[in-house]
Amino acid sequence: MDNYINAWSSSNIGRYFMNSLYISTFSSIVTIVLASMTAYALTRMVFPKMNKVVTAVFLLAIMVPAGSLLIPLYKFILTITNNLGIKLYDTHWSLILPYIAFGLSLSIIIIMAFIKSLPKELEEAGVMDGLSIYGLFTRIVLPLMTPAIVTVFIINFLGHWNEFVLANVMLSKENLRTLPVAMASMNNGLSMNYGSLLAATMFSIIPVVIIYAILQEKIIEGLAAGSVKG
Fold it and tell me: What span, in angstroms and rounded, lies between the C-alpha atoms of 46 and 123?
């Protein structure tokens, strides 16, 4: 147990753990909000040509490797920081904003598939009761989308939680580091504290195990949603 105590306090794993938890959770929640509204608009608001174009753009975005955008993204954030005076580089926003952007495409496609499986009669009944488009979304569609939302949250959270390259490039201050970057820095080439490293690894696994244990049924339901119709 001494290794866990030392890793949490002396090695500052507690700070890095909270940084990762905050960034991953906040990014995933914002992605879910934006993806849900976009998916609903593309599925239920019929603009034939525009809907096809926007959906095609999101499908193409899934095919673009995030690593290929690292250098342009780094230069873009530096340009905003230096020329516009908006401090993004070396802040958590330099991770949160790209995480949201990278997670939107797949999230929208998954939620769109789920919404298409929902019967339109439910929304028609809501219209007869006087609900606006916002009321239909928040009071009827959104509660029914829980399995898809949980699935999207897990996919995004795990991606953000384990992401290393972007976090290593965008954050230079030690107190802003995320857990994967902090764990990599424990190897200084001369000596390694295996006790603290393995304890930190356990800390990184615990949130994932808890989330899967609690939400496993919703995850399976959300992944299977939209696969069968009729």
Answer: 15
